[in-house]
Structure formats: structure tokens, C-alpha cells
Amino acid sequence: MHRKSWKQLNPTQRRLVVLGGALQLTMQGAALRDLRRRAPDEVNGPRWAWACATFVNTVGPCAYFLFGRRGGLPAFD
Fold first, then answer.
1. Which residues pair with 69 in a beta bridge?
2. Per-residue pLDDT reduced to its tens digit, 17-48
């Protein structure tokens, strides 16, 4: 199986690629924002490690939301 270029993708495949990218950026932004607003004692492990983990496709943000947070929602100002 060889890789297809953007021009070789049909419109449905192009939409799925764009949707996947938008989902990744949205989840990463939400994870980084939540991480920034939480106190260090509300995070399991070092914050810098979770911030780096958010850059690993959608797995990183999902892992942060599942395993990286302690307690409830962050306090909103």
C-alpha cells in the first residue's frame, strides 16, 4: 500500500482528514488549557510531562483527561 497525496484523496477522505486534524487540535487545546488552570496538586505527575504528552496525536490528550487529572473541574475566574 502506498501513501496517497492530497490530490489523490476523494472529497470524503479529505473531509475526514480535516475533521481528524480539527479534533486533534481541539482536544490538545482543551487539555493544555485545563492543565494550565489546575493547581499542581490536582495533576497526577509532572505538569510538563502531561503538556508534552498532549502532542502525541489524540492519545496524549485522551490520556491526560483519563489519567492525568485529580479532583473535579478547574476553578474558573
1. 43
2. 999 999 999 999 999 999 999 999 999 999 99
Using CA atoms, how far apart are residues 30 and 49, in angstroms rounded to an integer?
A: 16
pLDDT of residue 1: 74
What rounded mean pLDDT belongs to the chain? 90
Locate 51 and state its grid cell.
503538556
Cell numbers at 73, concatenated: 473541574
Say how far apart CA 52 and CA 1 lie, in whole Å.
32
Grid coordinates of 34: 485545563
The three-state (H, E, C) secondary structure of the chain, written as one string: CCCCCHHHCCHHHHHHHHHHHHHHHHHHHHHHHHHHHCCHHHECCCHHHHHHHCCCCCHHHHHHHHHHECCCCCCCC
